[in-house]
Design goal:
385 residues, 2 domains, 7-stranded mixed β-sheet, elongated
């Protein structure tokens, strides 16, 4: 089975404008979760620790009076929310935001490990942890799962090892802390100052220099509050392992394969096929920013599941990199074809994001086929770079 690309160049030219119109955002940050579905209260950290409660109060200047500063912050910023009903800790035994306020600067990062946008942010977080942990910065990775398999503690732990994450990670499987922070995005960063106020909020990738500048500013404020004389220097560096992505050239949005968020399946037989196995026949042509299935598939809320030994997924896209979030019952393998030519073999053996294609700086319009072998293979979402 293969996707035919009859009249391929003209077809893509005619549909390129449509692809641009439906592009979700230039920086691909609106991966939305369950904030509307889960309503729980999380304790608001109401009061920072008093200066007298610090371990070394003698180091604080006697004429330090922060009451007016705190009153001013009250009128400008929200207070930090406490971590609610954690489902596990990695790199730490326990953690409470309240225990850090008055002592540390806190960066709360909401992420989920199969999210490519989150993965591209991790090199910067790792670098900041290495540079500033001894200066008073605590990074807290709030892992709020997008997919069911991301609730598994061992899966998350494996991901932290894979990406070299050494700062504390807290599992937020029920979205309670996510909801307390009124979040709707992966990734999202909140900076909490020495007094316990959320003074900085950034959605998605990018703004790394701006974020680091704010971190250093808050660390120096902390030093003044604690009576420390030395200052933290700002030295902006891009991590060696930080990927380069030209978001302006990506014309295909994140594409989900489960019926809960599927929008771009071009050959869906009928609504009778939801949650049950149906046979999908490959069309003669594939429109830009749509995907097709070939073979016997069962489309569930989160994913499309191959219910036969072989099958095909095809997608017409405009980008330079293609990734797919995958889960398998045991293992599966596939041939990857680009514009009618085989380019590689790949094996899937764990629940994770897999890179299928990387054309470097060559952005363009293409048809990608995944020719699969492996009953029970599950595909969740395509992402692009």
């Amino acid at each position: 089975m293969r996707i035919k690309n009859k009249n391929y160049p003209l077809f893509f030219v005619l549909l390129a404008i449509i692809g641009s119109v439906i592009f979700l955002e230039s920086k691909k940050t609106d991966r939305r979760g369950k904030a509307d579905e889960i309503i729980r209260e999380s304790e608001i950290v109401k009061e920072p620790k008093n200066l007298g409660d610090l371990e070394n109060p003698e180091e604080v200047s006697a004429d330090t009076d922060r009451s007016e500063i705190i009153l001013q912050k009250e009128s400008l910023f929200k207070r930090a929310r406490e971590i609610s009903t954690p489902d596990g800790f990695i790199n730490i035994d326990d953690l409470k935001i309240a225990d850090l306020i008055g002592q540390k600067i806190i960066l709360v990062d909401f992420w989920t490990y199969s999210c490519v946008n989150c993965q591209r942010t991790l090199p910067f977080l790792n670098q900041w942890h290495k540079k500033y942990a001894d200066e008073g910065l605590v990074i807290v990775g709030l892992h709020t799962p997008e997919f069911e398999f991301e609730k598994d503690y061992e899966n998350v732990k494996k991901a932290t090892l894979k990406y070299g994450v050494k700062y504390p990670v807290v599992l937020d499987n029920d979205y309670s802390t996510w909801t307390a922070y009124e979040n709707r995005y992966w990734p999202r960063k909140y900076l909490i100052d020495i007094d316990g106020f959320i003074v900085y909020d950034h959605i998605g990738e990018g703004a790394y220099e701006e974020t680091e500048t704010k971190i250093v500013e808050l660390l120096n404020e902390r030093k003044k509050v604690l009576g420390e004389s030395s200052a933290v220097a700002l030295e902006i560096e891009t991590p060696d392992d930080a990927p380069e992505t030209d978001f302006s050239k990506i014309r295909t949005p994140e594409t989900y394969l489960g019926w809960g968020r599927a929008e771009f399946l071009a050959n869906f037989p009928s609504e009778d096929c939801l949650d049950k196995t149906c046979t999908y026949f490959l069309p003669q042509e594939v429109a830009l920013n749509t995907y097709v299935l070939g073979g016997k598939w069962r489309i569930e809320k989160e994913k499309a599941v191959l219910d036969d030994d072989i099958g095909v997924i095809g997608i017409a896209f405009s980008a330079s990199k293609v990734n797919l979030v995958v889960e398998t019952e045991s293992s599966a393998r596939a041939e990857i074809w680009l514009d009618g030519k085989k380019i590689r073999d790949i094996e899937f053996n764990e629940a994770d994001l897999y890179n299928l294609l990387d054309l470097g700086e060559e952005y363009g319009l293409h048809i990608l086929e995944i020719r699969l072998e492996g009953k029970g293979f599950s595909a969740f979402a395509f992402t692009f770079g």
